[in-house]
Amino acid sequence: MPRNLSAWVDLTIHLIVMLALALVTFCYSTFVGAAALLLWAVLAAFAWERCRDRERRFERYCMGIIRNVSEVMNYAVDRLPQAILLVNQEGHLEWCNHQLGDALGEMPEPGTAVADFWPHFNIESIWGTEGEHRFSHAGHSYRVYHRMVAESYHSEPLIALYVEDETEYAALEKRYYGSRTALLYIQIDNYDEIMQGQSETEKSMLLLAVHEKIDGWVGGLGGFLRSISDDEYVALLDRKSLDHAIAEKFDILDQVRKIINTKGMPVTLSIGLSLAAEQTLRELGEEAEAKLDLALGRGGDQVALDISGKTQFFGGKAKAIEKHTRVKARVVAHALRDIMENSDEVYVMGHHNEDYDAFGAAMGIACMARSLGKKVHIVLSEMNEGIDRIVDLVRKDEAYEGLFLRPGDITETPSLSSLLVVVDAHIPHILADPALLERIPKVVVIDHHRRSEHFIKNPLLVYIETASSSASELVTELLMYFGDNIRPTRLDATALYSGVVVDTKNFNVGAGVRTFDAAAYLRRAGADPVLVRTLFQSDYETTVSLARAKANAVYYPGGLIVGSLPDLLPNGQIIAAQAADGMLRVDSVRMSIYVFPLASDVVGISARSSGEMNVQVIMEAFGGGGHANVAGAQVKGVPLDEVRAQVVEKAKAYIEESDQRESHTAG
């Protein structure tokens, strides 16, 4: 029966009607009926044959189309401007089109390993997945789209690779990457100090030497430099030049540091840098300026740069130089007084697990608020065993009733005119009660630590002096200029004095001229050194634990000592800090670090430096911070032994790099 059913059905209907009419003619004439039947038979045979012929021609037509389409498809697949490969799990070629042969110069045989002609392409890394992959070979860059072939089409698993040569695109991308603009703000951060006592000729020669170094460095990188004042410059680099500067770790800092004035004081630079991405030029400039402020806030002599939203630091080797004048302290004191006078309530807090410096600075701020008749509270964290003795002394004094609060004690929302003063810290998440930052809009920050990229948002006033020995010293200087009628009590002065003593290791580390001036002011105000010595006395168990901590320390070449406290102790942080301080007294030791359990899943790190090394840089690698000579960090979810191993590795690498750079600079 013909397959073209629609035509045959139509003819069948006509034939049936004609047959019926032929049969009717038999009723009238047999001869005419026979002739009609004969004619009907001839027509039926003709119709059948015509349908068969039409079917044969239709099949030939369809087969021709299929054959032509198949040939076109095969040609198109084989001649696509894209190499197509079918590869088995062993990485051997099962089939490929001619484009692969054109790319390789010869057609590879089936069974050839892909690694033979593309050794940098790893089939194992993409097997069983669908997506994109990039690799380079022989100066060409390739993009591979890969997907698994359904097993219904083949007996063994195969992966289809569609390979495009994107060498031109990769070159364009590389040129675009290398042409991104980097904006630099460069500042001589100790300009006033190095110019003090210099003649006009000496000042001119000094500035000329610095300008020649900076101009030679920027010019050598193919950049653009302009001076905007005696101590400030603006420079432009492209990304390619910036990568070169990063690879050399901004050696301009070392070059300029070799320039000294007639008094032997070296010149130091601070650089704030931002790399163009999608921001406007105005935003680029604001970011670079903010990074310069960050570098200066960390003590200067360093580069702070922002690349793709990530802040990096280079340098930071020189000690922060103590300012010989208190002009800034006087200005800040007057500004702080104005802010307090316009506030109806003052809250003060330091970092979590307060030490004597944070507590002393908080007591000094509370003294200022009381002198203005303001209601004041000091917010203490839940964990501060190290200052229990002095806190108990203050609690016993009726004059300080209601002074201390815990984070959970502040149930009502403070008024909009309330003031929060943060001392000895500036990183939000380490504060005694971080939630207060969201509840009190007016915030003042007073700190002596090198500024971190994680800073309290939108503070009303910031006073950071990294050259200062302690936050207590800064607050003491503010007390000197806060007002004529202010009189610190004996406990206020003793608390501040204890903070200075702790952070200077009894005036042995980081104590400058202004430190002793502050100590003299506190002694005149009634600070009791005997009481301070009593506060610092340790019990027998602590003394034994300290001895054990010192005994398990390990000395490493380069002047590094690393120790640990294996057990969780109530005063473990104090013991670790004292052990780290004590180990600096060992001959040739330049850096001492102790790791200790701080909680069930938290490991603390306490780092100290003799002054030659910057331990804050190392602690920042662990998410911490602090001062160049005193720093710390907390690591969560990592075993103590692993943290200790990481500390040793990073500290040794830092010492080796510093020694190499010093050797290179000296040469």
Number of helices: 22
Question: Biggest sheet: strands, sense, closure?
Answer: 6 strands, mixed
N-to-C span? 102 Å
Side-by-side strand order of the widest sheet: 7-8-6-9-10-11
The share of residues in helices is: 40-55%
Structural class: alpha/beta
Whole-angstrom Rg: 41 Å
In short:
It is built from 22 helices and 23 strands. Strand 13 (375-379), helix 13 and strand 14 (404-405) form a beta-alpha-beta unit. The protein is elongated, with a radius of gyration of 41 Å.
Question: Main traits of this protein?
Answer:
667 residues, six-stranded mixed β-sheet, six-stranded parallel β-sheet, 22 helices, 20% strand
What does this entry look like structurally?
This protein is an alpha/beta fold. The protein has 22 helices and 23 strands. Strands 7-8-6-9-10-11 form a six-stranded mixed sheet. Strands 14-13-12-15-16-17 form a six-stranded parallel sheet. A six-stranded mixed sheet has the order 18-19-20-21-23-22, with helices on both faces.
List the helices and strands and how they pair.
Elements: H1 5-25, H2 30-78, E1 83-88, E2 93-96, H3 98-104, H4 114-117, E3 131-137, E4 140-149, E5 158-165, H5 167-178, E6 181-188, H6 191-195, H7 200-220, E7 224-229, E8 232-238, H8 239-247, H9 252-257, E9 269-275, H10 281-297, E10 302-307, E11 310-315, H11 327-341, E12 345-349, H12 356-371, E13 375-379, H13 388-396, E14 404-405, E15 419-423, H14 436-439, E16 442-447, E17 461-464, H15 471-482, H16 490-503, H17 513-524, H18 529-535, H19 540-551, E18 554-556, E19 560-564, H20 572-583, E20 591-599, E21 602-609, H21 615-620, E22 625-626, E23 630-636, H22 640-666
Parallel strand pairs: 9-10, 12-13, 12-15, 13-14, 15-16, 16-17, 19-20
Antiparallel strand pairs: 1-2, 1-5, 3-4, 4-5, 6-8, 6-9, 7-8, 10-11, 18-19, 20-21, 21-23, 22-23
Helix pairs in contact: 1-2, 11-15, 12-15, 12-16, 15-16, 15-17, 16-17, 19-20
